[in-house]
Amino acid sequence: MNEVLEEICRLRVVPVVAIQDVKDAEPLAQALIDGNLPCAEITFRTDAAGDSIRVLARRGDMLVGAGTVLTIDQAKTAFDAGAQFIVSPGFNPRVVQHCLDNGITVIPGVCTPSDISLALDFGLEVVKFFPAEAFGGLQTLKALSAPYSMVRFIPTGGIGPETLVEYLSFPRVIACGGSWMVASDLISSGNFDEIRRLTREAVELAAKAVSQNKTG
Fold first, then answer.
1. Which of 41, 133, 194, 204 is catalytic?
2. What's the rounded Cα separation, in Å, for the pair 170 and 132?
3. I want to staple 62 with a disulfide (CB 3.0 to 4.6 A). Which of 38, 79, 133, 164 is the partner?
4. DSSP classification of residue 169
5. HSE of 58 in the Cβ direction (CA atoms, 13 Å)?
6. Model-level pTM?
7. Among residues 7, 23, 128, 201, which one is catalytic?
């Protein structure tokens, strides 16, 4: 794995953020850092995505990615703004190839064996399992991963504190994506204290999973 993926593996949790107003980007970043999780995947589900990525990237103390990247133009916008990795909900060969050609870490979404096989054809070793819970959760992921021992996963979609440890305890999972600690209503209402609290809780749960893996 490259340095970006190694850092995601170390952090174990990737906050998936839909931010409506760029003014909230700075306090959100500080809340995540205060919660000991210096990472954010800013999704292109709002018009504020590009500018928010730029604000976070300029800080220099966070791992900043772009999510819900559906087109090459979005990938270019994200990279120009300072995104260090690109995440997509599905496998778009054109977007993946563009990222690889330009040395950008890309984590495409997969949910079938065919998707995983395609990722291998592109030389990828880490993919996003999405939408995780809607597609059968950890049971499905274990079944999918059985023939693909060389692939590692970042499950995302419907994961919360009640299932985080279970997912992270599976050796093929390097991290989980989640939005519960950075819910849009918490951001828009300025409730960064709650974001800070939920982030700390997520970090503690991730540490618990690491401890279980070492003793299991």
1. 41
2. 14
3. 38
4. T
5. 9
6. 0.96
7. 128
Helix (H) or strand (E) holding 208: helix 192-215
Q: Does the active-site annotation cover 41? A: yes
Question: pLDDT of the chain along its 216 residues, tens only?
Answer: 899 999 999 999 999 999 999 999 999 999 999 999 999 999 999 999 999 999 999 999 999 999 999 999 999 999 999 999 999 999 999 999 999 999 999 999 999 999 999 999 999 999 999 999 999 999 999 999 999 999 999 999 999 999 999 999 999 999 999 999 999 999 999 999 999 999 999 999 999 887 777 655
Q: Which two tokens mark 88? A: 């997509």
For residue 156, give the DSSP letter. B
Told to judge if 128 belongs to the known catalytic residues of this protein, a careful annotator would answer yes
Q: Report the distance separating Cα 33 and Cα 117, nearest Å.
A: 36
